[in-house]
Amino acid sequence: MTPKKLSHYDRAGRARMVDISAKGVTARTAEARAFVAMKPAVLRALPQNPKGNPLEVARFAGISAAKRTPELIPMCHSIPLSFVDVEASVCENGVAITSRVSTQAPTGVEMEALVAASVAALTVYDMCKAADKGIEIREVVLQKKTGGKSGDYDRAAGVQTTVTGRSRSKRNSATPKAVKRSR
C-alpha cells in the first residue's frame, strides 16, 4: 500500500499550514487515550497527594490543553471547540485517560484530543513523580474520529470508513491493550 501524501508540505517540501478555506463546516469528533503506568503503592497514595487530587487536576489540565492546541502544534488550525471532556481513572497498574472533543468546523479535532490526553498524562506524572520517577506514559493514541473528507476511524475495529461508506482495514493486528506489568 502506498502511503498517503503528507498534507503539511508544499511542492518544494517546505512546511505549511493546510488551506481549509474552501472546506465546508461539518460535525467532527475525536477520542484519544493515554495510559500512565505506575507502581501499585503510588496508585494507593493518589488520594493523599498533598498537591490535590491528581486525577481531577489532570482532567482540568487536559481540557485546558485541548483549547490551546494551536499554540503548541505549529500547523494546527485554531477552531472553535464545542465540547471537551477528559476522564482519568485508576486501573490495576496505572491511570487510564480518555479525552473526547467535538466541533462544527472545516477541519478535525484529532490533535485537540491527542493533546488533551497527553497533557493529562503529563499532569499525572508531575503530581506523582515525587513518589516514583519510573512512572511511564504509554500508548497515546487516537481511538476514534468522525466526520470530514477522510471519513470515520475506529482503532478498536481496525477500520476506517470512507465518505463513500466503504471500509478499509488500517492494521493487520488487534488493538494493543494497556500493558499491565508489576514493578
Features:
single chain, alpha+beta, 7-stranded antiparallel beta sheet, 4 helices, 7 strands, 23% helix, disordered C terminus
The CATH superfamily of the domain at 26-143 is Molybdopterin cofactor biosynthesis C (MoaC) domain
Shape: elongated
Assign the CATH topology of the domain at 26-143: Alpha-Beta Plaits
- Beta-strand proportion: 25-35%
**Distance between the amino and carboxyl termini:** 40 Å
Helix proportion: 10-25%
Biggest beta sheet summary = 7 strands, antiparallel
The number of distinct helices, counting runs of at least 4 residues, comes to 4
Order the strands across the largest sheet as they lie in space. Answer: 2-3-1-4-5-6-7
Strand and helix order: EHHHEEHEEEE
Q: What radius of gyration results from the CA coordinates?
A: 18 Å
Average pLDDT level: 85
- Regions with little confidence, pLDDT below 50 for 5+ residues: 168-183
Number of strands: 7
Query: What structural class results from the helix and strand content?
Result: alpha+beta
CATH architecture of the domain at 26-143: 2-Layer Sandwich
**Under the CATH scheme, which class of the domain at 26-143?**
Alpha Beta
Helices and strands in order:
Elements: E1 26-37, H1 40-45, H2 54-67, H3 69-72, E2 83-91, E3 94-105, H4 110-128, E4 136-146, E5 152-154, E6 159-161, E7 167-169
Antiparallel strand pairs: 1-3, 1-4, 2-3, 4-5, 5-6, 6-7
Helix pairs in contact: 2-4
